Amino acid sequence: MMIKIAVAMVLFACGSQAATFSVTQRNGKYCFLRPDGRAVMLLGMSHASAGPPAVGLETTIKDLRDCKFNAVGNAKGLVDEFLFIHNADKLAGSPKVERNKKGTEKSSKSSYEDVFDPAVKDKLRKQIAGICQQTVGNPHCVGYWWTDIPTWGGAKAGAKNAFVDYFRNLPKTAPGRIRYEQFLAQEGDHGDAAFLRIIARELYTYTASCYREYAPGRLLFGERYNTIPGAPMEVIEEAGKVVDIISFQPYEKKLTGEVLDKIHAITGKPIFLSDWNQSFKTDKYDKTMWPQFSNEAEAAISYKNYLLSAFAKPYILGYFKCQYLDAEYQPGHLKQGLRKADKTLYADWAKSISEIHQVLMDQFAKEGRWSR
């Protein structure tokens, strides 16, 4: 109750219910509208929070502005300078990956919670209330992402789904097991995919209702699915019923256009590319995260072509580039940014991104999707 009161006070004091972003269409293409009615698309940077402690806040801000980025994640020090989407990362109830101590995925496993259990819902509500209390008063807050890379998995005909297995193996008195038994007793499809839809409906409807309560008017970007589609279509379809935008992290050189067309048609919602990059070999690293090219120039050509093809889709609202500062995500594997680990700038790479963004901004302006 105290959390609810605190959030309500923040909403009242900041008048943030009126200062919200929205989604509209201009000339048949989607765009965001700022609270003052100006059109904008988001060209963002993920993991920018790795920058300020390492190179200084002023340098990070300058780098982002020079490259014409206008958005970040929930990065301390940057959310007062740029538009931002809050990334909750791991919300209660969503299927998540538990990594081993070294952070690699070889011995990682998925973890699950009973989304029908009031205790899990209470934990989720408290998480969301805390998030909104810290962010909803900031006029740069566009909206909210939920769990990063949820492991919904597949549920093809004849196959078992680990999340559904979790419910099958719960004690008979557990809320989720009771719901599963009710599902088996009803008429119709008893396959895993059908129950996965019920799980998603329960989790997504409740998650959305909490955000709508504590951050009214803010945009919901949903979970950040890994790759395209990144989750069974039943799950994505349920998400489309409660979120404003569907989000993907496409690990690809070329856009998976036909799949996205289908998802947009099924959900009726615009799409956001929430984490994406192209990479190139360095003197120190032969292995890099994201599709790799032999040098910066080749990567820049692919980067430009990908974004041009993406934004040719009328329902694509924006993208976030992965990583500001170089980091090893596995031993010997580089997660490449704008700056190297020694803090020096990839000057040619940064210049290419700036030029690519300028091309996009000019295109958006002609389409009515960008107010200069």
Task: Characterise this structure.
It is a single chain. The protein has 372 residues and is an alpha/beta fold. Helices cover 38% and strands 20% of the residues. It has an 8-stranded parallel β-barrel. α1 runs parallel beside α4 (118-135). Mean pLDDT is 90; it is low at 1-18.
The level of helicity is 25-40%
Low-confidence stretches: 1-18
Structural class: alpha/beta
Could you tell me the strand content as a percent range? 15-25%
Q: Kindly provide the radius of gyration, computed on alpha-carbon positions and rounded to a whole number of angstroms.
A: 21 Å
Question: What's the gist of this structure?
Answer:
The chain is of the alpha/beta class and 372 residues long. The chain has eleven helices and 18 strands.
Defining key terms:
single chain, 372 residues, alpha/beta, 8-stranded parallel beta barrel, 3-stranded antiparallel sheet, 11 helices, 38% helix, globular, disordered N terminus
Which helices and strands appear, and what pairs or packs with what?
Layout: H1 2-14, E1 22-26, E2 29-33, E3 39-40, E4 42-45, H2 52-55, H3 57-66, E5 71-72, E6 83-89, E7 96-98, E8 109-111, H4 118-135, E9 141-148, H5 162-168, H6 175-185, H7 192-214, E10 219-226, H8 233-240, E11 246-249, H9 257-267, E12 271-276, E13 279-280, E14 287-288, E15 292-293, H10 296-311, E16 316-321, E17 327-330, E18 333-335, H11 347-367
Parallel strand pairs: 4-5, 4-16, 5-6, 6-9, 9-10, 10-11, 11-12, 12-16, 13-15, 14-18
Antiparallel strand pairs: 1-2, 2-3, 7-8, 17-18
Helix pairs in contact: 1-4, 4-7, 7-8, 10-11
